[in-house]
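Box 3.1 A note on notation
Throughout this textbook, protein chains are presented in two layers. The first layer is the amino acid sequence; the second is a token string describing backbone geometry. Keep the layers aligned when reading.
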Amino acid sequence: MGESEDLNPEFGRLRSFFWPIYRYELKKLLPMLLIFFLITFNYNVLRTMKDTLVINGKDSGAEVIPFIKVWFMFPGAVLLTFLFTRLANRYSREIVFYSMISVFLLFFAVFTLFLYPYREFLHPNDFADKLQAMLPLGFKGLIAAFRNWTFTLFYVMSEIWGNIVLSLLMWGFVNQVTGLGEAKRFYALFGVGINSSGIIAGWLSMQMCLGDFNPNLPFGTTAWEQTMTLLISTVLAVGVLILVVFRWLNKKVLTDPRYYDPNEARKEKKVRGNVSMRDSFKYLMKSRYLLYLAIIVITYNIVINLVEVVWKHEVSVLYPNKEDYNYYMAKITMIMGCFATFTSMFVAGNSVRRFGWSFTSMLTPAILLVTSIFFFSAHFAKENFPDLLYALTGMTPLAVVVFFGSAQNIMSRTAKYTVFDETREMALIPLSPDCKLKGKAIIDGVCSRLGKSTGSFIHQSLFIVFSNIPSSMPYITGMLASVIGVWIAVTRLLGRQFNALTAVKGEGVKVTDIEATIAAGNQEKLEELAEQPA
């Protein structure tokens, strides 16, 4: 599926840089590109809304996010991953895709038509007030998550959309039907589709937030309610379009052996009967290769969560109004989409082809380290030298911190959506269908949530002890540096094994032999296999 073509390119210099695609491959590439665009469009719309709802809910703030991610997000991710594995055991890849997306679309429809309009009746405000009077101030976030439980549920489903639909369903599907040679040319273009969606989603959210209340619309009692209803309606319409395009791709494209080898399809069906969460965890713990990949995913999510909570707290202080907060976050999403699209076109794919997997995978932790230093330095200056910070920048100290936090979020998310996701998905391609399916189900479905929950657990523990974010900042900074150090070290180890695995030349070397060597952690033996002559 494309390997031989990748080894013997027929493209000119410019075409190989911007569009290394054969004409016949467009029938396969374009619908997958469109599905990626639509899935991430929905994610970007939902991402700004979920933060606006929970942070600006009654008696809430950014402190609510760590409690949601520990006590609600992680169990939700495990539950939906369990649902995925159960469905995968019984039904085809196509039916699993339709079923999982339908679960999300049904929830968003119920939220719009029932949960949000009747929120005052459904939220236990009186009981939450009693809890708030009884418990220490550090439990404010947990009480807010319970008080505004419909918003909490919306946050969970919106966040998990990215892990389940994008990472587990779509990327899992693409990894199954894409060869390594195709991946080196396709994946950077998929990144363009994924990241350009942020530009459109951010712009649309910004425009809708600018609208005033329209009494002629048959829904909503405020401008914000009308905006939210219109945005969720857009999400539902896009969700239906995703299902339509995916159906066409499976029925009109992947039935052609030029695009998908029927032997691979038979292998996949054979594997599906053996998938369970317990088996997947066992498989993960036996394979150092998959364990390294899991640690990379966990450490990334710990780091991004440690920084984001602090940044979102500062943004909510600067923009306390719901419309203003949602507008600003939508603007950040649009800017992020521009940066990420540029990176996908000019950096991600070309970096892998020119400098290799290891160098490219190191870019993300390096970017997060540098941008975090600037952000935490600005926060330290705001707390200790506000007058000096104002004299140097001409901005209020709070605005300076929000600026550097926004820059950190834009750069780190750009790296995540381009080089990080691309290298993570490429690391799975050389493995067998069994290894891919079991490893991806746990790494994307559970490990990602585990990382975010760990970062949130750190935050909520510090909130309970110190009651506020500024007092806990020195400890957050130390933990951040330690986790990034582990991330870099494990990335180097995985890079050695990936390079050895993809360097195998001889047809006499079986994939099962390589995977057994990886699982045993025998790097010398792996390099011997890689050097075995054809």
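The chain has one domain: 21-502. Residues 103 and 512 are 36 Å apart (CA to CA).
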